[in-house]
Amino acid sequence: xxxxxxxxxxxxEMLLRDIAELYDYDFxxxxxxxLRRRLNRICMLDKFTSFAELRxxxxxxxxxxxxxxxxxxxxxxxxxxxxxxxxxxxxxxLPTLGTHPFIRVWIAGxxxxxxxxxxxxxxxxxxxxxxxxxxxxxxxxGVIEKASRGIFQAGPIKxxxxxxxxxxxxxxxxxxxxxxxxxxxFDEALSEKMIFSTHNLVxxxxxxxxxxxxxxxxxxxxxxxxxxxxxxxFDDSLQSLGWLALxxxxxxxxxxxxxxxxxxxxxxxxxKTS
Amino acid sequence: xxKASTEILxxxxxxxxxxxxxxxxxxxxxxxxxPVIIILHRKAHPESNLSDLLKFHSSLPVAEVEDKTSLSPxxxxxxxxxxxxxxxTKSLAALDSSEKVNYxxxxxxxxxxxxxxxxxxxxxxxxxSGANADGMEGLLTIASYGGTVLVQDPVSAEFGYMxxxxxLNLEAxxxxxxxxxxxxxxxxxxxxxx
Lengths: 274, 194
Description:
Chain B: Pfam families: CheB_methylest (PF01339). Chain B: Keywords: Chemotaxis, Hydrolase. The complex is a heterodimer. By secondary structure, chain A is of the alpha/beta class. Chain A has helices at about 10-20, 30-45, 50-60, 65-70, 85-95, 115-125, 140-150, 155-165, 190, 225-235; strands at about 105-110, 130-140, 150-155, 175-180, 185, 195-200, 210-215, 240-245, 260-265, 270. Chain A is built from ten helices and ten strands. The N and C termini of chain A lie far apart (about 55 Å). In chain B, about 30% of the residues lie in helices and about 20% in strands. Chain B has helices at about 20-25, 50-55, 110-120, 135-145, 160-170, 180-190, and strands spanning about 10-15, 35-40, 60-65, 70, 75-80, 85-90, 90-95, 125, 150, 175.
């Protein structure tokens, strides 16, 4: 195993600057502790014996960048992750959206799409899906491609089904997908109103106005300055009285946009008040 | 023991370690000169009230770590369920929701190694009872930086596998029974070298 300190801080800084200069990806404001682990992991997976080798490959071989982005970003997700969060969405937030003639939801950093399908199921069960659009975006083109297919490993389905029930789901969860060998394919009716696209929270701007934005466990990888910028982007993209949902250990507290937002009963969901 | 001063103490544990923690923390010195970070294996759902339990037994303030938590000496920090806890700087903890390590998130190895990179020889870590191998790699990393490595005496552990395996693979600076741990920890901040 490669030692955790194979990557020297100065080398990491150089690599991040190289990537920002050569390509459209800027990781210079990502937390270093996580990046160090991801870079270490990619050295191991792709059998680089030194960090210099990885740096050489990235700077000389543009085709390797896709692979690099895929591995350096974290793509761990699940359906109905933190069931209590989805229960709140189901019971309290969606009903407030029901009054809108049209509901636009942005799932920022959607990874392989498990959250998009979870939200689609909630909207369906609330009778709102026909007048909704779910924009699911991620920095990583590889995961967007996967998400758009709606095919997932069958392994964690039992856990998802449990999560779904804890979130207040009343249907038979298996009615939403077809099993085939070790994969499940979700009902195409669920992806009818989904739009998948790459979007880089660091460099891309607002592209629509939303009533609900979910960005969970994405900003933990950003430093405070970048978090501030991304929150501003969400603020610019939220309609008045719209909702912003973050991960269970993330917060709007002490951010510049906080004065315009009201937290929903201690949950990680905030409503834009003006 | 002629070690560098301790700037952080990490305690990792799995099965059978909560009772040990409850035996340690009521006796920790309020004036500890370093933060204490606890990484414990536990289920992600339902949200357990481990931090409330620790608060109840501790005279030191206890906080569950959130995104970018600032660390202060004399505080006990708990790694949240379902996240890895990393050290970003000497005074800032970060969270990471990436793949499980040793089937665990939080993983003890991940936090121990992350701390070793930041605190180097000023890292101290204590590994408690457990039935899997998480924590050993982390202790090896800390030892390789010259940090201080402490292991629960396997005969005193409800699940001795974790400490026993660890002791087969590295030389601990001390092997401690639960009743000795608080005194040992309280002594750490007095070990300043002239």
